[in-house]
Amino acid sequence: xxxxxxxxxxxTTGLALSxxxxxxxxxxxxxxxxxxxxxxxxxxxxLRCALQHGGTQLVAICDVDxxxxxxxxxxxxxxxxxxxxxxxxxxxxxxxxxxxxxVVATPDHWHPLIAIAAMQQGxxxxxxxxxxxxxxxxxAMVKAARETNRVVQVGTHRxxxxxxxxxxxxxxxxxxxxxxxxxxxxxxxxxxxQKTPDMEPPASLDWDLWCGPAPMRPYNPAIHPKGFRNFLDxxxxxxxxxxxxxxxxxxxxxxxxxxxxIFSAADRYIKEDSTDAPDTxxxxxxxxxxxxxxxxxxxxxxHAEKSxxxxxxxxxxxxxxxxWQDGWTFYPANKNKPILHxxxxxxxxxxxxxxxxxxxxMEAIAQKRRPVCDIEIGHRSTNMxxxxxxxxxxxxxxxxxxxxxxxxGDAEANQLLRRAYRGxxxxxxx
Length: 430
Hints:
- The protein has 2 domains: 3-159 and 351-374, NAD(P)-binding Rossmann-like Domain (Rossmann fold); 162-192 and 222-347 and 381-417, Dihydrodipicolinate Reductase, domain 2.
- The strands form 2 sheets. It has a 9-stranded mixed β-sheet, covered by helices on one side.
- It is α/β, with parallel strands linked by helices.
- It has helices spanning 3-13, 41-53, 66-79, 90-97, 111-121, 135-148, 162-172, 207-211, 237-241, 243-253, 354-367, 375-394, 411-414, and strands at 32-37, 56-62, 85-87, 101-104, 124-127, 152-154, 179-187, 261-267, 280-286, 291-297, 309-315, 318-322, 328-332, 340-342, 398-399.
- It is globular and about 65 Å long.
- 33% of the residues lie in helices and 18% in strands.
């Protein structure tokens, strides 16, 4: 299915927002006031797509590191004639600029507070995945989106990638037969690495504000400007980073909204650097009608299989691989039937499909409907990763009531569905 047709379908079937700033039947002519919070590499990827799409005026950017915001402004002058203001604290930006659309592309631990504050100020939000660091942060974001009637798009862009869309059509058609197992995986090459000493933060960086509600620890260049996702105070490792994309593929395919049991085994067998996230992890997710597994390692890249990343769906009629740069492939159980394949159609230079996701976001705002990667969808996919990490931290399996979002009869586990915030920062209401 072509992206245009897919988005039309999403428009037709999407849930309409109950209220909003637009009046149906009236076409908006003024551009939306746009702000970018988090101006690093990925934030700028999103901003390029936003500006290329049109319909917005960039009024401000925000970053706790002036080195990053300076670099961003240098590029922005080549992208637009607008003269956005630069802020270090997102609260000042929201109060003074009153943006109508906010892009949240900060480290993971900041997503909930900034996104919720933007919604409450009146903005629609494009927030990067994962939606938060804990389960109840995601719940709070869903609550805020529904209470404020804002459109919130999560950056799980595979939901609009042409080969992912057509691949899901193939799976849902039943051509792979009854699927009893799904295996999601990421295998990256690497080695032990080496420790990076803590040091004073660079003069350009407000380290206290970077840490924000998360624990304050000494600055380490392995954390910022890149690498934070392998530090558990600020993210949830490979499962929290890459895992959400493939957990989302599983939930997109199945009619079940969540697993009922989860067990994870993980450790640091190889890494000797300054990070603390597992370099090896396996998670088993028990659903009602199938079992899903996740596995990753950050060493010994996989050349023995046909791919080192993606999902295998194992069905009675054959095995289906949903990949990234290698598209999708179906291997029939009947060897007399041909192998089926569809190449990926990815936007350069990043091999992502942010432009299609931004297009859907803007159309959802105009049409007062839920976007294709609505915050509730992103919340459930994020939960898959977070529950895997929670099981590992506990050292045992857990049961999950996804309707109530609790771990029944397990006070110890339920405590890990949220965490204490540092200093002045208050955990969002959920």
